[in-house]
Design a protein that fits this description.
Length: 250
């Protein structure tokens, strides 16, 4: 009997996607759930999803999920982990959620060294709510609330969240990855596994940032959005490990 070249992971539910063409949320969903499937942890995982495009994660991920108020997923996850210390607990959050309304929650969860994992989807814009400027929107980038482009005098500078989290001693593992090429997707999956391994070893807080696309709200085609990610986002949001259990940057 021939060995299958590809199999549908048990971690994803067989439903049609409602994400826009070119959106990379589906890729990050697949990486997270495929990793949990390979770890045989689907039945012992609890995800926490807040408002935004991330709110749809429960439709696709074959794990128990909690819906959280906007920005509050880290606080909910902290409570869930206290009750279920032997389960894998993760949050799945966008940039408008995590880096804006939820800044206090993520900073203090990391500072406390909560033994949870956060997956941060950075597409430099508010997605579900209409394409407004997010804390990660690039300088000069247009949005519905910065139609002439982000102006630092009015709106300040974009926040590099991974670098910020990495300054906190409670954060054990922090890495930024991208979802724009097969090679980067493979590296992203390794980061997902590393984050879950850190949690299983009870080492503390782990954080993986996915640099992602939002073609609809960027006003670009899917292919052009990939080019924007590579040429505009990655120079400002460099990929790499900012903190690891082995110490220092990698």
């Amino acid at each position: 009997m021939l060995k299958p070249v590809f199999e549908y992971t048990k971690g994803m539910l067989r439903v049609d996607t409602n994400f826009c063409p070119g959106c990379t949320h589906g890729i990050s969903h697949r990486l997270i759930t495929e990793t949990l499937d390979e770890m045989n942890m689907l039945g012992k995982t609890i995800g926490c999803g807040p408002i935004g495009c991330a709110v749809m994660a429960h439709r696709f991920m074959n794990v128990d999920m909690c819906e959280c108020a906007h920005g509050r997923a880290p606080a909910v996850a902290s409570g869930v982990k206290c009750v279920h210390p032997d389960n894998i607990v993760f949050t799945y959050q966008g940039d408008g959620d995590l880096a804006s309304i939820g800044t206090a929650e993520i900073i203090h969860a990391a500072a406390r060294g909560e033994n949870i994992t956060t997956f941060f989807v950075n597409n430099a814009i508010y997605g579900m709510t209409g394409g407004q400027m997010a804390p990660t929107t690039l300088v000069g980038q247009k949005s519905t609330t910065t139609q002439a482009g982000r102006d630092t005098h009015q709106s300040g500078f974009p926040i590099r969240v991974s670098e910020l989290i990495a300054t906190l001693d409670g954060a054990v593992y922090v890495e930024r990855v991208a979802l724009n090429t097969p090679a980067n997707v493979n590296k992203a999956k390794k980061a997902v596994r590393k984050a879950f391994d850190v949690q299983q070893k009870k080492l503390g807080f782990s954080f993986v940032e996915f640099v992602s696309t939002c073609p609809t709200n960027w006003g670009l085609s899917p292919l052009a959005a990939m080019d924007f990610l590579k040429n505009e986002m990655l120079p400002y949001y460099p990929l790499g490990v900012f903190r690891s259990p082995e110490g220092g940057e990698e």
